[in-house]
Amino acid sequence: MNTSNKSYDPITDIIFTKGLKIKSATHKDRKLDIILNNDLILVVSLKNYKKLNGAPLEEVNNFKIIGNGTGLHWPTLDEDLSLYGFLKEFFKQNIEKKRKLVIA
């Protein structure tokens, strides 16, 4: 019998077993290109994030990588977003859109 109160989280598992971290990020056309240390690129629309969507471009461009590559921080907007959250949203959107997900 398992007496642990911990539950398995596949997103956390992927991040830690693969050692995923944010290597860099760029902003263009109201989207963030988030480059991971395995060269995977996540394209994130700012419309999904209230503080970023309505912010002036100068403030959107003022961010830094935090937590040893686990997130992004916008000091002037008081906004923090995580790699975990980006991946969670990616999986959620792809499942909701009923896209073909290939397991190879």
Shape: globular
Q: SSE order in H/E notation? A: HEEEHHEEEH
Largest sheet: 3 strands, antiparallel
Number of helices: 4
Structural class: alpha+beta
Q: Which strand-content bin applies to the residues?
A: 25-35%
Structural Rg:
15 Å
CATH architecture: 2-Layer Sandwich
Strand arrangement, largest sheet?
1-2-3
Task: Give the full name of the CATH homologous superfamily.
Answer: Uncharacterised protein PF10387, DUF2442
Q: What gap, in angstroms, lies between the N and C termini?
A: 33 Å
Mean pLDDT: 90
Count of spatially separate domains: 1
CATH class: Alpha Beta
Q: What would the CATH topology be?
A: NE0471 N-terminal domain-like
Low-confidence stretches: none
Describe this structure in words.
There is one protein chain. The protein is of the alpha+beta class. It has a single domain (10-96), classed as Uncharacterised protein PF10387, DUF2442 (NE0471 N-terminal domain-like, 2-Layer Sandwich), CATH 3.30.2020. 29% of the residues lie in helices and 28% in strands. The protein has four helices and six strands; from the N terminus they run αβββααβββα. It has helices at residues 10-17, 50-53, 57-60, 83-96; strands spanning 22-28, 31-36, 41-45, 64-66, 71-74, 79-82. The strands form two sheets. Strands 1-2-3 form a three-stranded antiparallel sheet, covered by helices on one side. The protein has a three-stranded antiparallel sheet with strand order 4-5-6. A hairpin with a 2-residue loop joins strand 1 (22-28) and strand 2. The chain is globular and about 40 Å long. The model has no long low-confidence stretch (mean pLDDT 90).
